[in-house]
Structure formats: structure tokens, C-alpha cells
Design brief:
By secondary structure, the chain is α+β, with helices and mostly antiparallel strands. The protein has two domains: 2-90 and 175-218, Alpha-Beta Plaits; 98-165, 2-Layer Sandwich (Double Stranded RNA Binding Domain). It is built from five helices and eleven strands. The protein has an eight-stranded mixed β-sheet, with helices on both faces. Strands 6-7-8 form a three-stranded antiparallel β-sheet, covered by helices on one side. A hairpin with a 2-residue loop joins strand 2 (33-40) and strand 3. Helix 3 crosses helix 4 (162-176).
Length: 221
């Protein structure tokens, strides 16, 4: 799962992290594994694993938030957009020749607390032959290494099979769009304490519960 900032400047970037946190809470409530991979300025990525993880595919598309931004001092209302892409991990990823891979441990950044930022727990893997690089953040180096190698193997497989790569890129672009309002699937209206899914028509008149992890109330069963 990838969450990207769109229209709305700083508030869009803030909502990326808030929506990402809501996904993590939702995954935990459904007894799924939520592996945070990386985040940055207006971007967050995670792997969601377990029976029922496929339901998160319903989150793909544009998400609209209407509110007074947390950073707004003059009470001005704003509409911002974030985009979500949900791409499946292969159950049996292609094999990777470790002799062709450079693996480096380094300090993490962002989430995880000061310990993560001081300890070399993040993992960067580089495929020497192609130059492809994958970086996975987190507290557990061995878990980060395993995930980085899986992602690298899948990217190499995609490069070797252009048709697969084209389908994946088309899927990501279709889901993310261009960060505008034209492809919105969901609106979070803080003024009316309302979340609505424009595809299903499902509404939740308790936005706090949705942001606390009850996003699945908006899903098709």
C-alpha cells in the first residue's frame, strides 16, 4: 500500500500520515500484520499481510479531506487530496542471487523513535547488475532485510517482464491518478463529522471512529 500527497499542500501531507495511521489501526483490529516500509515528505508505504488483507484494495483511489487544517491559524477551510495505491505482493516471489546484491545497514529516519534513528536497523539493498535499489526502514534489521530482498526480487522480475511491469504501472497510475479531485472515491468531512464512500454510498456519521481504525465500515462486505 502506498499513500501519496496530492492537492492541498501541507495539509495533504499531514493527512497522508493520519490516513496511514488509520490503516494501521484498522489492520490491527482485523488481526493483520502491518509492516511499515518507509515514509517521507508526503509519502508512506506499508505491506499488509494476512487473511483478509485483500479488502484494503478498496482503498485505492483519491481521498478528499475537508477541514480547517491543523496548521491554519485564521480558521480558513480547505479541501485537500491524497491518493492511495494498493498493489499485490506475490505469494511466491522470484528467487534472487544474493551474490549480485549489496546489503547495507544504516540508521533509520522518521517513525520508530529515537532508538531507530540512532541504531543501524534500516536496510538498503542494491542490485549491482541493474542498479536497482530498495530501502526499508524500521526497528528490526533482519525483518527489513527480508522485506527489501523480496521487493527487489519482484522489481527485477517486473523489469524482465515488460508486460507485467506495464500492467503494474498502469494499475498504480489508475489508482493514484494525478493527486486531483477527479478520481476521488472517499470524502472525510470534518465539518459535518462525516465519512462517505462515493462508490458504495456508505456513510459513517462518526469520523473519529473512522480515523481510529474503523475504515472497514465504509467497505463492501
Amino acid at each position: 500500500m502506498e499513500v501519496h500527497a496530492g492537492e492541498g499542500g501541507d495539509d495533504s501531507k499531514i493527512f497522508v500520515q493520519q490516513l496511514f495511521d488509520a490503516y494501521q489501526r484498522c489492520a490491527r483490529k482485523r488481526n493483520l500484520t502491518f509492516e511499515w516500509l518507509d515514509d517521507g515528505d508526503g509519502y508512506a508505504e506499508a505491506a499488509i499481510l494476512g487473511a483478509g488483507a485483500q479488502h484494503f484494495r478498496q482503498e485505492a483511489g483519491g481521498h478528499c479531506v475537508q477541514r480547517i487544517p491543523p496548521t491554519e491559524r485564521n480558521g480558513r477551510r480547505q479541501t485537500s487530496m491524497v491518493s492511495v495505491a494498493v498493489l499485490p505482493l506475490q505469494e511466491h516471489p522470484p528467487q534472487l542471487n544474493l551474490a549480485d546484491v549489496e546489503i547495507t545497514a544504516q540508521r533509520g529516519h522518521g517513525r520508530g523513535g529515537q532508538n531507530q534513528n540512532k541504531v543501524a536497523s534500516a536496510c538498503r539493498v542494491i542490485h549491482r547488475l541493474s542498479g536497482l535499489m530498495v530501502f526499508v526502514n524500521g526497528r528490526d534489521f533482519h525483518r527489513n532485510k527480508a522485506r527489501a530482498l523480496q521487493v527487489l526480487a519482484e522489481r527485477l522480475e517486473a523489469r524482465h517482464h515488460q508486460a507485467h511491469n506495464a500492467r503494474e504501472n498502469a494499475m498504480r497510475q489508475q489508482q493514484i491518478g494525478y493527486g486531483g479531485r477527479g478520481n476521488k472515491i472517499r470524502t472525510y468531512n470534518f465539518f459535518h463529522d462525516l465519512a462517505v464512500d462515493h462508490r458504495t454510498g456508505h456513510k459513517v456519521h462518526n469520523l473519529q471512529s473512522v480515523m481510529a481504525g474503523d475504515i472497514d465500515l465504509l467497505w463492501e462486505s
